[in-house]
Design brief:
Layout lengths: L5 H5 L41 H14 L8 E2 L2 H8 L3 H13 L3 E3 L5 E3 L3 H4 L39 E2 L12 H13 L15 H15 L8 E4 L1 H13 L5 E6 L1 E2 H9 L3 E8 L2 E2 L11 E4 L13 H14 L2 E5 L15 H4 L5 E6 L11 E4 L2 H15 L4 H12 L2 H28 L3 E3 L6 E5 L7 H10 L2 E2 L1 E2 L5 E2 L10 E5 L5 H15 L1
Parallel strand pairs: 4-16, 6-8, 6-10, 10-11, 11-12
Antiparallel strand pairs: 1-3, 2-3, 5-13, 7-18, 8-9, 12-13, 14-15, 15-19, 17-19
Helix pairs in contact: 2-4, 3-4, 6-13, 7-13, 8-9, 8-12, 14-16
This protein binds pyridoxal-5'-phosphate.
Length: 523
């Protein structure tokens, strides 16, 4: 239902019909000029002793009174309503006149009619709606069987002025200009692509583009047939859990770990097996020597410590997976950004025994608002993974995939990554130097790449929760482990003595100002 303010109504501009492009369907109906209303549910009874116009006014009055038709919303024109109800226009006009005189509706310029704004003051609160079925005395509903915890990627409440929240790319780095150009080009030649369902596995061009990118950037030898385009890594995790996790299924996970992965596996009833993390990532020698279905790892940039898993441990991890018959779930969320030296080959690139399921995302490299990620699965899992994807949501938006495919294949993605990498490296340097300037020798991990660092607090500073609260009072968001969408099963050196700082979304000036404020607040 269209909503608008009174002030909008008085100056309703005539909506210009867009020129019909060459590619447009010439049988499409002409665009309706001006504001339009949705059809409203009125039912007339011809045999009733009340005249039709009274039935119409009575029902519209009720819709307005019980809050279904909100103040400011348009109602269909008398012509449209007469057509919809199969009555004469005069009948509808009689009803409209009555409602206008009672103050329920108003006419705007042209033939547009809307629910009176004045009604807003006296209208009952939403929810006080007319009951159509009398509630039974006692209703027994099935119990809700799911009790999960969300990972809180969107933080409710007070927004700090200088926000070092994790995993946010720089909003000003989004490639707006080129995106707009590619979008318009694709829209102009879309044909029926927007009215058809896209293939559930993703657009073939994009799957090819991702496979090529993974070969060059991550050393992986994958075919397009192994790639699924998904709604971010979060959906990829759900697909994997659907395939392998039932109540009681053992799943090994880093401790501390990414909350989003943990919540997903737990929501399917997994028995979580925490494995400690040290300064080289997951302690492979602490993995259980028993049948475990999956192990979830973040080897490029351990979440949240930021450590990189060295090659020897990668090899040991793959050997372990083959020994116990587990799949390794490699979450490579921010590996596009490596600042000091070349990136290590992905685990999936070292794997010759089809034991790695690889997860990647454009949330960090382009923007989380796109909600596009990808899953590279061993060939034998591809078909069932696609079935799960189609059950979950029947595929990603065609237009987003098409633009993204063009963005990658035109070379713009590689250019974008190189430019953004330089910006982020400068911001990381700025963060580290400002921390040193104000806190002396700082112990930081994860600064070699990715989009956040972990600051291991010196003894002179209070616990992370205290620093977090103090900083917030001074307009700065710095995050203790759990506030940074991480989870620790056991008390670790990181639990309350480390802060997670994301920096790409802040300018160097903001980074400096934010850290100065924290230093002053703690002084
Ligand atoms: C370790 C890790 N994996 C995955 C994600 C989310 O990825 P996506 O936006 O593709 O769902 C995040 C987000 O911060 C993350 O930190």
């Amino acid at each position: 239902m269209l909503q608008c303010k009174m002030s909008d109504v008085k100056v309703v501009p005539e909506v210009q019909s867009p020129p019909i492009s060459q590619a447009a369907d010439i049988t499409a109906p002409a665009a309706i000029r001006g504001p339009s209303a949705v059809q409203i549910p009125l039912q007339l009874e011809a045999g009733r002793d009340r005249p039709l116009h009274e039935q119409i006014s009575e029902q519209i009055r009720l819709l307005i009174a019980d809050g279904r038709l909100r103040p400011g919303s348009y109602i269909p024109s008398s012509r449209q309503l007469a057509d919809q109800l199969g009555v004469s226009r005069n009948t509808v006009l009689l009803a409209f006149n009555r409602l206008t005189s009672e103050g329920y509706i108003e006419a705007a310029k042209g033939s547009h009619t809307f629910v009176s704004q004045a009604y807003a003051k006296s209208s009952p609160p939403r929810g006080n709606v007319r009951a159509t079925v009398e509630p039974a005395k006692s209703i027994r509903r099935p119990p809700v069987l799911f009790r999960g915890e969300a990972q809180q990627l969107v933080r409710p409440g007070r927004k700090p002025i200088f926000n070092f929240f994790v995993g946010r790319p720089c909003p000003r780095c989004f490639p707006h200009r080129i995106w707009r150009r590619l979008l318009l080009k694709r829209l102009a030649s879309a044909g029926s692509s927007l009215s058809e369902y896209p293939p559930p596995a993703g657009l073939l061009e994009l799957r090819h583009a991702v496979a090529d990118h993974l070969g060059a950037a991550r050393g992986m030898n994958v075919r397009a047939a192994q790639i699924l385009i998904v709604n971010g890594i979060q959906e990829a995790l759900n697909i994997i859990a659907r395939l392998f996790v039932r109540p009681g299924t053992p799943v090994a996970i880093e401790d501390p770990c990414y909350r989003g992965a943990l919540s997903t596996f737990e929501s399917y009833g997994a028995e979580m097996v925490p494995v400690p993390v040290d300064k080289d990532g997951i302690c492979v020698d602490r993995l259980p020597e028993r049948a475990v279905s999956l192990v979830y790892v973040t080897p490029s940039h351990q979440f949240p410590t930021g450590e990189t898993l060295p090659t020897e441990r990668r090899v040991e991890l793959l050997k372990w997976a083959n020994r116990v018959g587990a799949y390794v779930v490699e979450d490579d969320y921010d590996s596009d950004f490596r600042f000091d030296g070349p990136p290590l080959t992905a685990l999936a690139g070292l794997d010759n025994s089809a034991s790695v399921i690889y997860l990647g995302t454009f949330s960090k490299s382009i923007g989380a608002g796109l909600r596009v990620g990808y899953l590279a699965v061993p060939m034998e899992l591809a078909e069932t993974a696609i079935t799960v994807k189609s059950i979950l949501n029947a595929g990603q938006s065609w237009i987003d995939q098409a633009v993204l495919a063009d963005f990658i294949t035109s070379g713009s993605f590689a250019r974008h990554l190189n430019q953004v990498r330089m910006v982020y490296r400068a911001r990381r340097n700025c963060l580290l130097s400002t921390l040193r300037e104000h806190f002396g020798e700082v112990n930081v991990s994860g600064h070699q790449g990715g989009m956040h660092v972990m600051w291991h607090l010196p003894d002179s500073l209070p616990d992370a929760l205290v620093v977090e609260a103090t900083a917030l009072n001074h307009g700065v968001g710095v995050y203790s482990l759990r506030s940074a969408v991480a989870f620790d099963f056991t008390q670790t050196p990181y639990s309350n003595r480390a802060l997670v700082l994301g920096y790409p979304a802040l300018s160097e000036e903001q980074i400096r100002e934010g850290i100065v404020r924290v230093a002053r607040a703690l002084a």
